[in-house]
Amino acid sequence: MTLTPVQLLRGLAVVVFLIAWALLAHYGTAGDSSPDLSVLLGVSPIIAAVGLLLWRTRHPLLAGGGNLLLLGSLIWLWPTLRQNVPLVFFIQHLGTNLALATLFGRSLLGDGEALITQLARAVYHGKISERKRVYTRRATLAWTLFFLGNAFISAILWLLAPQAAWSVFANLLSFPLLVCMFVAEHIWRLCALPPEERPSIAQVVSAYRLHSKQSPPPANPS
User: Fold this and answer.
1) Which stretches within the chain are classed as H helix?
2) What's the predicted TM-score (pTM) here?
3) Which pLDDT does position 104 carry in this prediction?
């Protein structure tokens, strides 16, 4: 796949942003930057995730009320958060990995299809081979275990290791580990699937966007 200059610049901007975020988070955990900036950096992913979940409910009152409650809670807790910056980053890192593990893992339960299988069907217009179905289910399991492993190691380091060691793992190694996981899955895909069943990155991104738009909101409990 040939990338355009705009796509290359966009990808480079994302990489630069992630590296800057990781360094600022590491310095914030060590207490070497502004507490207010560090707290804002730490809670931003949580706020974005909760806001997205509220938006996907498609209930204006619930989304609006939930966001107001979230904003009010943040303002009320801000003085406490400023005094516990490392804990903010720990909760953010642990929560992010557990949320992603849940996203992938819940699709393996019951009679539904695994998340990556759903994306593969979106890429190939609903038709995939049995080999592809087995691979995508196993890949979904692999990503689930990857995020669970990250959460477990993060918790162990937070409880038993020096704070600096936890920060190196959670803030500086998260992105490289994610890249390594993508590379490992890509190599696995090359070995497990024939060329005609290997989607491009652009196809995967397009399928994910389509899947996200078409996914129905969670059903209200009866």
Assistant:
1) 5-30, 35-56, 60-82, 85-105, 115-123, 130-160, 163-167, 174-192, 201-214
2) 0.79
3) 93
